[in-house]
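Below is one record:
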Amino acid sequence: MSPRILVVVVLAVVVAVAAVVARVAASDDEEPAASDCAAAGVEKPLPREFPRSYPLPPGTRVTQAAASAAGSLFVQAAAPLSAPEAVSFYRTEPARAGWRTAAALEREGAGVSASFRGPGFSGTWTVDEIAGCPAAALLTLRFVRA
């Protein structure tokens, strides 16, 4: 192999390696997309007793769900909305579906939450940020039979 061809081959390999290193470094700095964050974890079905009239943001993925013998329900899910967008959703959408929501309370380190009342249930919703995923929100819903 001539020295000129060897130089061209070595230069091509160096450029290719540099491109791969740059792509890997850039992907490490990118924040996960909302759909990636909201899709994390194993999806669970909603409890059979979950009131179907209570709204969940489109694309919400339930990751924990439980119903007690006394009729209390617990649901935790990830929604492909920022935390402020999810709070806005819960300030308006339950009312459109016939649920009454009290004023939301913001507690440092504990997200935003509010109590609600609707057909056969009362409860609370809480919206928290998901660390490292600013375009996804953690939702916690608690229902108690009214």
In short: The chain is about 30% helix and 35% strand.
